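SAMPLE LOG
Freezer: B-3
Tube label: C17
Construct: single chain, 75 aa
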Amino acid sequence: MDVEIGIQNVARPVSFVTDKSADEISDAIAAAVADGTVVDVTDTKGRRIVVPGKVIGYAIVGSDTTHPVGFGALN
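STRUCTURE (predicted):
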């Protein structure tokens, strides 16, 4: 799942790919914003992303489609 989190007063968003579902990510972000806690997610490379809910400006939770390789899409 591709995820992009925009942080207030920061020019570059935090972008990463995770194995969690879109609903899990959306619920974690919504809870962090509502409660003032942190979003704590591990990406596919094993890095841990921790973002305070109070500074989240926006979040884009993308699709979990596979990326094509080469000149044609492999099915």
